[in-house]
Write a structure and sequence with these properties.
Number of domains: 3
Helix content: 25-40%
Strand order of the largest sheet: 11-16-17-24-21-20-18-19
Radius of gyration: 29 Å
CATH class of the largest domain: Alpha Beta
Largest sheet: 8 strands, mixed
CATH architecture of the largest domain: 2-Layer Sandwich
CATH topology of the largest domain: BirA Bifunctional Protein, domain 2
Number of strands: 29
CATH superfamily of the largest domain: Bira Bifunctional Protein, Domain 2
Distance between the termini: 31 Å
Structural class: alpha+beta
Length: 584
């Protein structure tokens, strides 16, 4: 991979988006242009076109892009009066650009806008861009796919056509990326979930997963592991209603930030309005406020596997990775200001404990005050400085990242990004320090002098959502579950019908030892049974015939290692139980 910094690559991709737009203009002179930003690993551009694009169009557009690149046209920036720019784009028949400029003038008071010209193509753009189109290497970019996208993301607006592409600094970098895409397709959790019969989705509940028996095994294992891991750190488990009076969401501030993504219902004789919760925080606060607490009780740690429901547009749903209803491994901690440092460190240790068995690399980030923050600057600065000092001490100044303006509306946070087996990153754990909600809800405790004080609050998740974390793990493991998480840890494969009774007796012993097994007594040949087990990526296949019956043993095949030979049933139990206990 290139050693050049990411900003250069972003500029290259943004410039490639402009070249794509110029190519589209050649193919469709009546095309109307929307927006074309760089994104992670690539770029896209949205168009209003006279016909629907087909996959074959991508190759034609790539040819036109290569021709434009060959001309090595410079990217020329100019400043234009906003009113003159509106006239320019109206004359060119570009209504989306006109709307963008009008919004800039109205919302930002912009009197001038910047334009970029490359040959005959002129676009509204802040830039920056590379020096000229010739800097894009023809063998280091590729158009990937076509999809639909509503103008400005609103279903009320027209559906546009979005072209996705990627651009890199070398042919080698592009080849490596395309290989990652190919590997990612093989690991697609939706395909593996179907192949392994883990979960499904149905129109009666869009974006809400139905977990099948095998998927439920994995789901419960993750949840139970989470519950057990917290015991060392003194958490109490709570459960709160999933539907609360809308007044509580207005008080918490969630109304202002989430109301468009919330589900509402009117109930009771007075038709009172309630909302399905988009977050768990208010429930924990109500439990805390149910009684007056002493400083001796703090920190109070409330953990809740909270059911969350949020509206998502159909185009944003993505298997288990983006759903409308999920259970978050949430916790809310009430503490004094003097306890912040130690408690955040405790949560960091819990993050380490929970992530370690999955063999996934991860990195911490400090996310600071967003533009739409709630509360006063002083408390924000205090919270940000507290988290920064902790990160400096735990990880060292150069070993965590910074996400400016990416904090929650009520407080800064530490976010964790996980890196899976093929190098993709996922944001999961978050530790949020909050001085605002305790103030809004009048939370209090009695200090050592008998005076009322305001506690601080930590919001914390580690897996994030069990559904999403499970989807990440499916793709990380490519469906090859470690034994401790496998829905079926071993298949028992009798060679013939006469060996079925022995297989059933072995099954009883394994089940009694807590091992999840399946007896495959179909009439297929043993070769077919083994191939089926390998396709399902079962941890262990136990073959049994006359020799195994005579020796009170099983012939063990381990995934990835092949035939391990004959083994006494008791010895196999000891081997797999050690693997399960160690979560290896």
């Amino acid at each position: 991979m290139s050693t050049k910094n990411e900003s250069q690559l972003e500029i290259l991709r943004h410039s490639a988006a402009h070249v794509l737009a110029a190519a589209v203009l050649e193919m469709f002179p009546e095309a109307k242009f929307a927006i074309g930003p760089n994104i992670e690993d690539g770029f896209y551009y949205d168009f209003d076109l006279p016909r629907t694009l087909i996959p074959e169009d991508l190759a034609l557009l790539e040819e036109k892009m290569c021709a434009i690149i060959g001309q090595d046209l410079p990217f020329e920036k100019s400043e234009a009066d906003a009113k003159e720019a509106i006239k320019l784009f109206k004359k060119a028949g570009q209504p989306y650009k006109v709307e963008l400029i009008e919004d800039l003038a109205k919302n930002e008071g912009a009197e001038n806008v910047s334009l970029y010209k490359s040959g005959p193509f002129v676009d509204l753009c802040r830039g920056p861009h590379i020096e000229s189109a010739g800097k894009i290497k023809p063998d280091a970019f590729k158009l990937l796919k076509i999809s639909g996208a509503y103008w400005r993301g609103s279903e009320k607006n027209k559906m546009l056509q979005r072209i996705y592409g990627t651009a890199w600094e070398s042919k080698k970098d592009l080849a490596a990326y395309l290989n990652r895409l190919e590997e990612a397709a093989k690991r697609d959790h939706r395909k593996i979930g179907k192949d392994q019969d883990l979960f499904s989705f149905h129109d009666v509940a869009p974006g809400m997963p139905f977990f099948h028996p095998k998927g439920t095994v994995i789901y419960n294992l993750l949840k139970n592991f989470w519950v057990e891991a917290q015991k060392e750190f003194g958490y109490d488990n709570i459960l709160c209603p999933s539907m609360l009076d809308v007044a509580i969401w207005k008080k918490s501030g969630h109304w202002d930030h989430y109301k468009d993504d919330m589900y509402f219902i009117k109930a009771g004789e007075d038709e009172k309005e309630y909302a399905l919760r988009p977050m768990d925080c208010p429930g924990a606060i109500l439990i805390y406020n149910n009684s007056l607490h002493s400083y001796r009780e703090l920190p109070l740690r409330y953990a809740e596997p909270g059911l969350i429901t949020r509206k998502e547009k159909s185009g944003q749903l993505n298997g288990l990775l983006r759903v409308q209803q999920f259970v978050q491994d949430d916790a809310h901690i009430f503490l004094t200001e003097g306890q912040i440092e130690q408690e955040v460190k405790n949560v960091i240790n819990l993050v380490d404990k929970i992530y370690k068995p999955f063999g996934i690399k991860y990195k911490a980030y400090l996310s600071t005050r967003p533009d739409d923050y709630m509360g006063d600057i002083k408390s924000w600065e205090k919270a940000e400085n507290a988290l920064k000092n902790i990160l400096d001490e735990v990880y060292g100044q150069d070993n965590y990242g910074l996400k400016e303006k990416d904090g929650a509306f009520y407080g800064p946070k530490i976010d964790y990004q996980l890196e899976d087996a093929i190098g993709r990153t996922w944001q999961c754990a978050t530790i949020q320090l909050d001085f605002q909600m305790p103030e809004k809800f009048g939370c209090r405790y009695i200090d050592n002098e008998g005076k009322e004080q305001r506690p601080v609050m930590i919001h914390r998740t580690i897996m994030g959502a069990f559904e999403r974390f499970m989807g990440i793990l499916i793709e990380h493991y490519a469906g090859a579950w470690p034994a401790w998480l496998a829905p079926e840890q071993a298949w028992l494969l009798p060679i013939g019908e006469k060996h079925t009774d022995y297989a059933n007796s072995v099954a009883q012993k394994l089940r009694a030892a807590g091992i999840r097994i399946a007896v495959k007594n179909e009439s297929d040949t043993i070769g077919k049974k083994i191939r089926a087990g390998e396709q399902q990526k079962v941890s262990y296949l136990l073959v049994m015939g006359d020799k195994e019956i005579a020796a009170d043993s099983v012939a063990v095949r381990e995934r990835g290692k092949g035939d391990l030979g004959a083994m006494k049933v008791e010895d196999f139990v000891e081997k797999i139980k050690e693997e399960i206990d160690n979560k290896s």
